[in-house]
Amino acid sequence: MNRFDYIRPATVAEAVAAAAVPGSAYLAAGTNLLDLMKGGVMRPARLVDLARVPGLDAIEALPDGGLRIGARVRNADLAYDPGFARRFPAVAEALLSGASAQLRNAATVGGNLLQRTRCAYFYDPASACNKREPGAGCDAREGENRLHAVLGWSEQCIATHPSDFCVPLVALGAVVEIEGQAGRREVPLEEFHRLPGTTPERESVLAPGELVVAVRLPGEAAGFAGHARYVKLRERTSYAFAVVSAAACLRLEDGAIAEARLALGGVAAKPWRVPAAEAVLQGARPGAEAFRQAAEAALAEAQPSGENGFKIELARRILVRALTLAAAGTPERLPALPASPLASHSGVSLHG
Amino acid sequence: MSLSITLTVNAVPRTIALDDPRVTLLDLLRERLDLTGTKKGCDRGQCGACTVLVDGRRVNSCLALAVSHDGAEVLTIEGLAEGETPHPVQAAFIEHDAFQCGFCTPGQIMSAVGLIREGQAGDDPERVREGMSGNLCRCGAYQGITEAVLQAQRRLAEPEQEQAA
Ligand SMILES: Cc1cc2nc3c(=O)[nH]c(=O)nc-3n(C[C@H](O)[C@H](O)[C@H](O)COP(=O)(O)OP(=O)(O)OC[C@H]3O[C@@H](n4cnc5c(N)ncnc54)[C@H](O)[C@@H]3O)c2cc1C
Ligand code: SF4
Ligand code: FES
Ligand code: FES
After folding, report:
1. Which of A69, A170, A332, B34 could form a disulfide bond with A271, CB atoms 3.0-4.6 angstroms apart?
2. How many domains does one find in chain A?
3. What is the pLDDT of residues A300-342, one digit of tens each?
4. Residues 6+ apart with CB under 8 A from B95
5. With a 6 A CB cut-off, is B142 part of the ligand 4 pocket?
6. Beta-ladder partners of A6
7. Domain FAD-binding PCMH-type spans what residues (chain A) (predicted)?
8. Across the interface, do B48 and A347 touch by the CB < 8 Å criterion?
9. Considering only the top CATH level, what class is B88-160?
10. Contacting B residues, span 89-118, partner chain A, CB-CB under 8 Å
């Protein structure tokens, strides 16, 4: 780990001013940043610690029935907040399917949004990586790329965004509140992360030094609470990143789908909302046929970026699974293995 | 800037001067405070061997910067027993043979204490396994670990039930 100056600002304004100095990085819990610094992947000259900055750790109800979640709210605190889990169950399920209990106790909302890719070549300073070192090349193109992107990738970078939390959030129209030296602005989460194009090192619309202060869920997003699920396929049962994942949130009226909100995870450099698939479902009767059509529409543009063509069909099937579970209704309590396609509906033991 | 921090470690208040902000909570415990019960497995958040409670919550001390936890209360495996009497989770691990080499055990025990405090798993073994999935055991003592956690949880609940009755 490189040496750095440690700064502990006492206000948002102080934090934003401190981080405007080139070479600075915000420190939230550090569960991603310290890992990357230990590997020499990130080498910030200054860490601006958010631990003491007031006003970042509240979960507030909004007049429209929505919720404003401070950037430093811990992943576990949000997932177990009864009001939150009741109104946004797919988001709680996604949170509880991520990392481990220890990491969720530490990891913050802002850090989860801004966590970096898990591409192994990005993590290895001896490999060529355009994201780590613009212009260096991309060793993933000819390397181990089973888990890389099938949507929105470029010749320069085929990495995915690893967050679970962001997948149902983007489906539900979450908005990111950002504070910078020029003041406050808001960006829909759907436009927050950038696709790699020719500049994979630029991963979000944040300007250097800008701070995420909160994420907002609009009140209408709670209208999907009765039929909202997240499904995440992993290479082991728990404590693993998604191979592919899907959030499906439905509003049913008279047995038909009045509105659908769908997004995929593990497929692109951003949480991938699929409006074309949402449109297919509008007015349709929930069922295998409609769900398969929606899945075809969701992956229509998908292309393998290496030896990962299997992820395209897998993503279709996981989306169908998420839709089937959502249509059946959000369970009273999350299953024992949140988001697991292996879990039975009632959360009964897998192991006999 | 002074990098002096205060921590309460196993109920003992300490003031610690840090010459370098890079020190993790794990290295501080092991290298500076000689509390070597907390283990360093991967040092990258992937194994759980370094699990301690910070302000009552289980976290990976290898991915926590010590200087950022100024003022925190830390509980490690060394602070769990009451004198010579092991904590109910420690006793249950012994009773259920919930370890072999023992390297992961301090992290498993601290994680189990955290899990029981969180109160989310109930008596469902599947929920206990999922709640303990952040602690790897290379010896594969998982069966005993799950049984130990369930038993310790029942024992810890008993006095409360008696009071309620
Ligand atoms: C072993 C392991 C397994 C994991 N598994 C999963 C998983 O299955 N699913 C999943 O979704 N995640 C997983 N994670 C990732 C985990 O969710 C992230 O590490 C965590 O969310 C990051 O939050 P943090 O508060 O620790 O952020 P930090 O590590 O402190 O920061 C991460 C980045 O965000 C920036 N940042 C932080 N807060 C702000 C802010 N408010 N404004 C602007 N920039 C900010 C930092 O500068 C840094 O670049 C895993 C991590 C580990 C180590
Ligand atoms: S896929 Fe992206 S992150 Fe991975 S090596 Fe290529 S450029 Fe780097
Ligand atoms: S040493 Fe901290 S998780 Fe492995
Ligand atoms: S007892 Fe050996 S690693 Fe768990």
Report:
1. A170
2. 2
3. 999 999 999 999 999 999 999 999 999 999 999 999 999 999 8
4. B148, B151
5. no
6. A47
7. 1-222
8. no
9. mainly alpha
10. 111, 114-115, 118
